[in-house]
Amino acid sequence: MTDEDPTLEQLRFLHKCIAKVTEEIEATRFNTGISAMMEFINVAYKWKKRPKVIIEAFVLLLAPYAPHLAEELWFRLGHSKSLAYEPFPKVDPAYLEESTILLPVQINGKTRGTIQVEKTCSEEDAFQLASKDEKLSKYLDGMSIKKRIFVPGKIMNVILDRQHVKAAVQ
């Protein structure tokens, strides 16, 4: 555990957990709230550094489910007063939005794969990623491109020159 600031990825996982646990408590679906916390812990185990603010928020999430354990953890985190007087964590919607998307890539109108891109990715950047992708590059290597159709955030379609495709097939 460190006193460092959490990364964007850590904050995203925490706020997804807060959102899910809050929703499940309000709907009295406690088992799925526990499941969300277990998923969070599985991800947090993989982090090299675990910021104290993230752990504190998690302990507050745990409190309604395991109050005695949460209270003990709270004191071990260095707090001298009970967590019973602490506010329940609030979700920040800004951390729930993903900055990347899975973009489908079509070659001559047939979906041949997907690439992970930033939401604000340009056509050229998306094409470069597609041409480096192992699954997609086999369709593009050595082919002349007639046209590229790119709808930001939706799809990329690469139209190959038909004459060049026929020559490559023969």
Automatic annotation (TrEMBL):
Belongs to the class-I aminoacyl-tRNA synthetase family. CDD domains: Anticodon_Ia_Leu_BEm. It comes from the Eukaryota. Residues 11-120 form the Methionyl/Valyl/Leucyl/Isoleucyl-tRNA synthetase anticodon-binding domain. It catalyses: tRNA(Leu) + L-leucine + ATP = L-leucyl-tRNA(Leu) + AMP + diphosphate. GO terms for cellular component: cytosol. Keywords: Aminoacyl-tRNA synthetase, ATP-binding, Ligase, Nucleotide-binding, Protein biosynthesis. One of its GO terms (biological process) is leucyl-tRNA aminoacylation. It comes from Rubus argutus. This is leucine--tRNA ligase. The lineage of its organism: Eukaryota, Viridiplantae, Streptophyta, Embryophyta, Tracheophyta. GO terms for molecular function: ATP binding; leucine-tRNA ligase activity. It is an enzyme of class 6 (ligase). Its EC number is 6.1.1.4. It holds the Pfam family Anticodon_1. SUPFAM superfamilies: Anticodon-binding domain of a subclass of class I aminoacyl-tRNA synthetases.
